[in-house]
What does this fold into?
Amino acid sequence: MLFFSFGNRAFNKEFSESNIYVVVSPKYEYEDELSFLDKAINFIDDKVYPGEDFKSEYEGIYLKDGEYKEIIDRWIQSMNQSIEIKMDEIIGVQRIKCSSSDPYRDEYLIETAEEYMMFLWSTTA
It folds into this structure.
């Protein structure tokens, strides 16, 4: 698994309270999207932010189908001056829904032909 964190300077703005976390892994390692999400959440909890109980925020998650690709494209484009992101064609995007809604977070599972990506956007504003 790979973990990337993009903070305020990645959004082509001098000041921003937004963050994007991305976890990427090859699809062949997982039975399905939910098994990938489970491993990605555990990876963040164990390796990236140990001791912060990250995984408790994701108990009872489920995936919601919808037209979310535009949102992902917009976020990636809003980062184009600070970083360059290239990836295979996105073939599916599902929203990650938690049992409690947080208006300061927007989270997605992105699927390409070969990878799954957990895409977590959050802000403090």
DSSP finds two helices and six strands in the chain. The beta strands are 2-6, 18-26, 62-65, 92-97, 105-111, 115-123. Residues 33-48 form the longest helix (16 residues). The helical segments are 33-48, 69-77.
